[in-house]
């Protein structure tokens, strides 16, 4: 078979296996890049040998890496880069220096390295992290614009720049002597020349060139121009002895600041995803299962040491630059793998004789496993960070690393609206509210946004909006509403759940990022969920109907109907399974319990809205089974029927309270049942409830929420304090009367 058809066959095999592997990983609720890596292992020279010539696939894979970094440059932009420039430059230098030094020292002490030069080289290998894997994972999770995403990407870009320097000095490392200083000088000079060229081209050459091409109004020519710019600059850096990815990223930055950046990004994204899948497949082909199996103990030990050690290096560095503990934990678990370009560095070291064959294969195996574990660790990181800060002694110490800074907030702050996120949507919302004379408090973790808030003298708190410490400061129990406009879906869901746990009756309006999030956020307790794309479509539709002569009242009725139905009439049916999976992921840390609806239950005949289960107990009704019918995401108008089976999701205490309420008909039917927050002036402040009094509901208190915790059964005297929220089965006046009629200790 001639070389051309063989290459096409290899290409089809690689893309086909990537499709199958990605599909299987998706069905198993794993990141698709894990499927790409495993498919490469299966079809590669160490698997079923369907592809033996890995070099050709790797050549195309380099194109995928170039497109990945180009798209990152376009999305990142110089403005965004300035936000994290300190940690990107100084932090990455610290991380690389500390990691390299520790690895070199440890490897010499343990005898893994024969010489200090070999120890330094191994330190170089292990100090790099994976831009491609981390970027792909952050993109899939919608977290590239979050604080931890920007921190990780800033450090990764600086590491990629350092890779060019490492490659430049490798020959000098193989021949110790005066050549090392000259190699460093040459590498630095090349970098300075290239940066100067990039700045000049980005100001005087690229904008007019892209404007000229765009003026042709030819989509094909525009795409070709973008590709030529991306790969051309990447090849230039390669010729200078710097990394291809550095050139591609700089090319993206050139495009980012001109008017055609969005169009360029839209054109490149399909190519990026296609070629990036080849990159991950090619990485999988380098994994030799036999070497991993024969050295499994050693490799697993190296994996543990590398990932734990790098995490312990990265976390203090991030904390040292003033970021929150949660950001530090996520960044440390996101950057503790060995980068894919360590393969390139290892190959160069092997060819130059710096790295022996056995160590080369150990590095390859260790790197492959760390890459596979990265998406899993990134998914677990936020919850892991939250659990650490709840530890009795450690949590108190770590609270000082949670970035809570604010302009002075009056303790009497009340009847205000809390806005989480001050991006484009948040800014418009805040201006609208302020124009109406409404008091606004903004939660934001971007220093650039904070500067704008300072200039406009808008009250703010600097920190992560889903942080318990931050939420305690904004007095949600006294707020009129909470608007969530965060760019991160995961943080949005977490903030929604925590806000409702602190203030169950709070009305929360949430911005959804994707179709599937609309129902998920509604089920988690949002008062209203807004999907910007749907709202834009509704506005366009209303204008079109107006042009067609439809009556204004009819148009508004249609719009209200669609919104009341949670956009369901315009959401494709196929999204339902995705919504179910997303809701399961959002509530996987909570308890689930199936509860049967007895024919005599007070719930029979009530709608979800009238029963008010979500606000009474904190429980989310995720599914209802009746006869042969299954209702996912029951709407507020769904009625409970006899013999229904209800899937309740919540904490154990919330589910216990839900079961109790189901057996107490009077509690559900009384209009007076509601959550009542206690402020400093409440007569119930300092009231001490004994366990017997609380269990017997003597005072009319069904349950108590305090800082996100639900209390119904306690084993010691429980003293009420400001900020508590009571679920009452009688009016507040009745409770006060009971206090007067029957003495209860007040301390």
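Q: What amino acid sequence fits the structure above?
A:
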């Amino acid at each position: 078979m001639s070389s051309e058809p063989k290459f096409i066959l290899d290409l089809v095999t690689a893309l086909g296996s990537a499709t199958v592997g990605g599909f299987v990983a998706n069905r198993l609720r794993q990141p698709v890049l894990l499927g790409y890596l495993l498919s490469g292992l299966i079809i590669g020279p160490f698997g079923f040998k369907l592809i033996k010539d890995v070099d050709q696939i790797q050549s195309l894979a380099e194109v995928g890496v170039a497109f990945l970094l180009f798209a990152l440059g376009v999305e990142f932009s110089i403005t965004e880069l300035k936000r994290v420039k300190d940690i990107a430059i100084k932090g990455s230098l610290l991380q690389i220096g500390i990691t390299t030094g520790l690895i070199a020292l440890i490897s010499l002490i343990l005898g893994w390295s024969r010489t200090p030069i070999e120890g330094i080289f191994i330190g170089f290998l292990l100090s790099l992290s994976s831009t491609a894997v981390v970027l792909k994972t952050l993109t899939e999770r919608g977290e590239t614009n979050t604080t931890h995403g920007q921190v990780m990407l800033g450090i990764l870009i600086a590491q990629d720049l350092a890779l060019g320097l490492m490659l430049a000095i490798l020959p000098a490392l193989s021949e110790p002597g005066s050549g090392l200083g000259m190699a460093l000088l040459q590498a630095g000079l090349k970098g300075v020349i290239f940066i100067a060229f990039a700045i000049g081209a980005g100001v005087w050459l690229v904008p007019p060139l892209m404007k000229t091409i765009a003026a042709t109004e030819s989509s094909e020519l525009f795409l070709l121009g973008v590709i030529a710019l991306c790969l051309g600059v990447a090849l230039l850096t390669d010729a200078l002895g710097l990394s291809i990815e550095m050139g591609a990223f700089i090319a993206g930055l050139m495009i980012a600041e001109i008017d055609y950046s969005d169009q360029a990004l839209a054109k490149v994204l399909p190519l990026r995803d296609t070629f990036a899948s080849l990159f991950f497949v090619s990485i999988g082909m380098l994994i030799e299962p036999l070497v991993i199996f024969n050295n499994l103990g050693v490799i697993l030990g190296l994996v543990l040491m590398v990932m734990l050690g790098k995490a312990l290096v990265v976390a203090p560095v991030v904390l040292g630059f003033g970021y929150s503990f949660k950001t530090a934990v996520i960044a440390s678990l996101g950057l503790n793998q060995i980068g894919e370009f360590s393969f390139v560095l290892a190959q160069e070291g092997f060819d130059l004789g710096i790295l022996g064959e056995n160590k080369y294969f150990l590095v390859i195996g260790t790197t492959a496993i760390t890459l596979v574990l990265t998406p899993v660790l990134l998914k677990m990181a936020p919850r892991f960070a939250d659990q650490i800060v709840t530890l009795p002694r450690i949590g108190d110490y770590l609270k000082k690393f949670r970035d809570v800074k604010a302009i002075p907030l009056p303790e009497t702050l009340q009847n205000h609206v809390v806005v989480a996120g001050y991006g484009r949507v948040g800014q418009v919302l805040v201006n609208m509210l302020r124009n109406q004379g409404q008091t606004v408090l903004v939660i934001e973790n971007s220093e650039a946004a904070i500067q704008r808030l300072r200039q406009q003298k808008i009250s703010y708190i600097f920190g992560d909006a889903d942080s318990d410490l931050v939420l305690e400061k904004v007095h949600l129990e006294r707020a009129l509403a909470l608007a969530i406009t965060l760019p991160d879906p995961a943080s949005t869901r977490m903030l929604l759940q925590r806000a409702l746990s602190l203030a169950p009756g709070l009305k929360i309006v949430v911005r959804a990022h994707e179709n599937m999030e609309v129902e998920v956020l509604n089920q988690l307790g949002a008062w209203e969920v807004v999907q910007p794309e749907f709202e834009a479509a509704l506005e366009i539709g209303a204008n079109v109907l107006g042009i067609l002569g439809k009556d204004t009242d009819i148009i508004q009725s249609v719009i209200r109907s669609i919104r009341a139905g949670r956009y369901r009439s315009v959401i494709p049916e196929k999204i339902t399974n995705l919504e179910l999976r997303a809701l399961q992921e959002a509530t996987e840390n909570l308890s689930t319990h199936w509860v049967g609806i007895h024919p005599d239950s007070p719930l029979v005949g009530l709608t979800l809205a009238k029963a008010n289960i979500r606000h009474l107990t904190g429980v989310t009704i995720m599914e209802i089974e009746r006869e042969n019918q299954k209702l996912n995401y029951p709407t507020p108008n769904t009625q409970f029927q006899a013999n229904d089976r209800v899937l309740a999701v919540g904490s154990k205490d919330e589910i216990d309270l839900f079961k109790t309420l189901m057996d107490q008909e009077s509690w559900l039917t009384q209009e007076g049942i509601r959550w009542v927050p206690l402020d400093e002036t409440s007569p119930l402040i300092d009231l001490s409830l004994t366990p017997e009094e609380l269990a017997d509901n003597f005072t009319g208190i069904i349950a108590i929420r305090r800082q996100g915790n639900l209390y119904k059964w306690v084993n010691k005297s429980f003293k009420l304090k400001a900020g508590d929220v009571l679920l009452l089965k009688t009016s507040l006046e009745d409770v006060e009367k009971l206090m007067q009629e029957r003495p209860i200790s007040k301390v």
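Q: And what stands out in the fold?
A: Residues 689 and 718 are 5 Å apart (CA to CA).
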